[in-house]
Structures are given as structure tokens and as C-alpha cells.
Design goal:
- The chain is mainly α.
- The protein has a single domain (about 5-395), classed as Up-down Bundle (Sodium/glucose cotransporter), CATH 1.20.1730.10.
- It contains 19 helices and no strands.
- Helix 12 (about 255-260) crosses helix 15 (about 325-360).
- It is globular.
- It starts with a helix and ends in a 12-residue tail after the last helix.
Length: about 475
Amino acid sequence: MHRLDLAVILVYLAAITWFGARFRTGQKSLRDYFLGGRTAPWWAISLSIVSAETSTLTIVGTPALAFNGNLGFLQVVLGYLLARIVISVLFLPQYFRGEMFTAYELMRRRFGERIRKLTASIFLVTRALAEGVRVFAISIVVSIVLGTGEIASIVVIVVLTLFYTFEGGMTAVIWTDVVQMSLYVVGALLSFFVILGKIPGGWAHVVAVASPAHKFAIFDFRFSPTIGFFSRTYTFWAGLAGGCFLTTASHGTDQLMVQRLLSARNERQSRAALLASWAVICVQFTLFLLIGVLLYVYYGDLHIPPPVQPDRIYPAFIWSSLPPGLAGLLIAAILAAAMANLSAALNSLASTTVVDFFHARRPGTPEAASLRLARFSTIVWGLILLAIAIGARHSHSVLEAGLTIGSIPAGALLGVFLLGVLTRQPGEYSAMIGVVAGVSAILYVVLRTPIAFTWYVLIGTVVTFAAALLASLFEPRGKVIPSE
């Protein structure tokens, strides 16, 4: 280990922790702690959305996808744009009708308290599981750099991130996201040109080697109405439909993202932040996939066997092949993405716990007591994520594992949210039946069929929506709650 690299990493960790903790003085109410006082500009929220959407899974896992495959993952990104348009039209007007702290308050207003707690519970469980996988991804990087065990690596990052999230709340989350996203984008650009410089012949040689291997292939338009079609993960149809439904669910019903949208000053700025984030995310995914293509050519030219675990390819190259100082900067960039996403998860889990469960039972709780509870909840969720990460150390691909876990309940959540904003007749009873049916259907698909995870959200959404509509035909009229 180079002392300069280690110094760069330690300085970064200390500086970002100090920077985030500085926002403690502005936290005087739940509005401050969970929505940043609604003072952040749209561009900062946009970068914060990107930071949460990419995370360490993107930085570590995306190059591995291109190394072993091609650029086909970009087909999913096309669906991301369509999803943002849907959210802007259907969900944002609902979220800015009055002041909300969580996405699940919309469910209470439309259906009732039980469906609110059901959807909030699904979020808490699945977000914790998915975030645990992301936290494990951090240990891949830290263990390479420090030579420590995976558990010790996880503890270091979780404790530091927990500290500044505990202190600064959502304001710290947004502004540290801006700093950290800028750092890992710069780091990715630097690594791209460094890897390219190590390949004799430069970009022309990369094209000559990668093109015959179909590494630059993006679109797969093959379509056949068979189970084999649905088992292919990255096709144009799976990407457009899967990416759209997955992102509509994650950005429109998942508190991790919705909390950022609610932190905007008004609906117009929230919409601008959401749409602008797509352009950045598209460039980022392209950059990390191209890094994977460069590594494919580099490893092939030197006849170097790749790591057994594909997700170690990019961080291992950085640490073993880049000059002192630069390697430390790039590792710090990867840690930046990890800490940014983890801090957002901690704050969103705490906000859902306090607002949708504690305040629902004790609505008159003073602000000071609520703020103490919010900070305590942040600590508890930090410990839970730590435990889940330790148990997630045997994932083959951290990127696909995280997306798969997130996709299982997302369809049920999206289905019931669409039911709430598009219909008036179904009530709480029908909504709960729909959610149960949607989750059950996806669990069957996951466990009993070869269907790819890119289709999970679409299937879950359709089953949930249809089951709820069917149940509403038998629902007593007294249980129907109007949408207004």
C-alpha cells in the first residue's frame, strides 16, 4: 500500500464526515431533518438523485457487466426516461398537494391508515435488504485497499456515514451527495483515460478488439412470445418496460427517492430535478460500461486472468495498476458513492419509521421529542444495515442482486400507487388484497420461473392493479375512500 494513497483516502473520509456533521445546527424540526427545510436548489437535488441511483453497485458492478457482456444495460436506461415522465405527470402533483414527509402519507390520504402502514412496512423491509447488499459492495473496495476483512471494512464506512447522517439529516445527505457525486465522476473520467493510456494503440486498438467481440452492442430487438424471451435480462423490450416500471416504482413510490423530490421548494423545481437527473445518469452508465470494455481489452492483451469475483475487476485494477495518489483518489471516489447512498437510506428509513408509524399513533408529539426519535431511529437502522451486509457476502453480482431484491416488492407498491391516483372506486380493502396478490405473484415468479428480474416490476404492477380492481367489485361501498 502506498502511503500517499492511504493518506488521500483518510483525508477524504475525515473531510466528508466533518462536512456532513456541520449541518447539525440547522436541524430544529422534522421538516429540517427529513426534508432539509425545503431550501435545497433543484440542481443539488438532481445530483443527489443521481448519487442515490448510481451508488457503489454501479461503480463496482457496471464495468463487470460490460467486461463479461456488452453495452446492453443501456437499454434499461432508456426506460428510466419514460419513467421520469410518468412520475412528473402522475405522482408529483399528488405529493405537492399539502405538505408530506413520506410517500406513504399519500396512501393514507387515498385509502386509509392500514394500507399506509402496509406499504411503509414493505419499503422498510426491502430497502433494508437491498441497502445491505449495497453496503456489502463497499467491503469489496475497502478490503482490497486496506487488506482488512470484509466485516471490519463494512463497520468503518457504516460508522462514519452514520455519524454525519445522525448529525445533519437530509441537508447533510443532499450536500454531501453533491460533493461525493462530483468526486466519483471525476474519478471515473480519470480512470477511463488512464486505462486507455495503458493500451497500446489507444482507442483504435480498443475498437479493433472489442467490436468483433460485440462489446459495443447495445440493442437486442429479438422478440418471441415464449418463456425464453422473458428470461433474457437485457433486451430492448425488457429494458424499456423493465426500466420504466422499475424506475417509476423506485423514484415514484420508494421513500429513498421520493424524500429527495419532496425536499424541493415546489413541484416545478422537483420536476426539473427529476428530469435533469436522467441526462446525468445516462452519461454515467455509458462511462462505467466503457470502462468495462477497456478492461476487457487490457486484460486480453496482457493475457491476465480476471478475478474470480467479477465485481472485483475495476477496484482491483485501480489499486494495483494506477500511480500513487491517483489510485487513492479513485478509491476515495468509490467510497464517496457508497457513503452517499448509505446516508440517504438511513435518513429515508428513519423518516418512514417516525412519520408513518410513531406519529401515526402519537400525532401530537413535540418537535424536540420527534427530532430525538428521528436520530435514534437513524442509529437503529444503521445497526440493522450492518447486520444485513454481513449476511450478504456471497452474492455473485452485487449490482444484479441489489436490483433483484428491489424489484420483488416494487411492482406491488407501484400497482397500489397507480390504483390510488388513477381510480376512485377501489378502497382500502381492495388495495390490501391487490398488494398481497402482487407480492405473492412475484415471489412465485422469482422462485419457480426463469423470468429475468427486469420483468418483475411490470408483472407485480399488473397483478396488483388487476387484483385490486377485481376485489373492488365485491367491496362494501362504505369502505371506499374518495381520492380527494
